[in-house]
């Protein structure tokens, strides 16, 4: 009986209908992100302002060696890099 339960659960490990729903949902989400990226340009000024303020705050930190290396993660098309 135990082997029959394991076999039955193994055959239902990947529900084709559910996987189809996941794939369709992923395709819809990708399309909505593409549409949202068109609208994102309307808010670039906010990202530029945030980057500028972040750099101002970093400039206030006193370090003898400064910041010789930085990683710009998550600021879109390099707003922090441009602000530096």
Automatic annotation (TrEMBL):
Keyword Methyltransferase (UniProt): yes
BP terms from Gene Ontology: methylation; mitochondrial respiratory chain complex I assembly
InterPro entries: Malonyl-ACP_OMT (IPR050602)
GO cellular component: mitochondrion
Record keywords: Methyltransferase, Transferase
Any GO molecular function: methyltransferase activity
PANTHER family recorded: ARGININE-HYDROXYLASE NDUFAF5, MITOCHONDRIAL
The protein, known as: Methyltransferase
Lineage of the species this protein comes from: Eukaryota, Sar, Stramenopiles, Ochrophyta, Bacillariophyta
């Amino acid at each position: 009986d135990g082997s029959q339960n394991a076999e039955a659960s193994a055959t239902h490990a990947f529900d084709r209908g559910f996987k189809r729903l996941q794939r369709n949902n992923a395709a819809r989400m990708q399309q909505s992100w593409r549409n949202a990226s068109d609208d994102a340009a309307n808010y670039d000024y906010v990202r530029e302002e945030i980057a500028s303020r972040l750099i101002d705050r970093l400039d206030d930190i006193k370090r003898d060696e400064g910041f010789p290396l930085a990683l710009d993660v998550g600021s879109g098309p390099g707003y922090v890099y441009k602000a530096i």
